Amino acid sequence: MALKAGERAPDFELSDQHGATVSLAGLLADGPVVLFFYPQAMTAGCTREACHFRDIGAEFEALGAQRIGISADAVTKQAEFDDKHGLGYPLLSDPDRETANAFGVSRRGPLPNKRATFVIGTDQTILEVVTSELNMNVHADKALAALGAAAR
Known about the structure:
Layout: E1 13-15, E2 21-23, H1 24-28, E3 33-37, H2 44-55, H3 57-62, E4 66-71, H4 75-85, E5 91-93, H5 98-103, E6 116-120, E7 126-131, H6 137-151
Parallel strand pairs: 3-4, 4-5
Antiparallel strand pairs: 1-2, 3-6, 6-7
């Protein structure tokens, strides 16, 4: 079962699309994090979702928040996904799905992760959880709304 708002987000260390090691604690030192899990890079739905996060990036930056994508895809595929669509934010590789399991969004089958977004405050508390397999834009839109409400 996915973690819920009010719970503490588990820390992790994963490689981004450039091979650099990234941790949740390190990211949170720079502001709130919007961590979105997606099933598979380069697929239609995940591309729509990731591009919407890209397209409204200035709105996240205005609130001091970082967008972070995560899937079970290899570092090289994450790099290809970023290069092809000019996403411009970290895409983390979770090939063994330990992080997806820790957040409660791992699943069996050909699509290893559920589509879920976690808005995480600098104290590592989850502020909002967004889940929708079919509405790709709702993830970024609701995350932005939660960040705006937390900033008030």
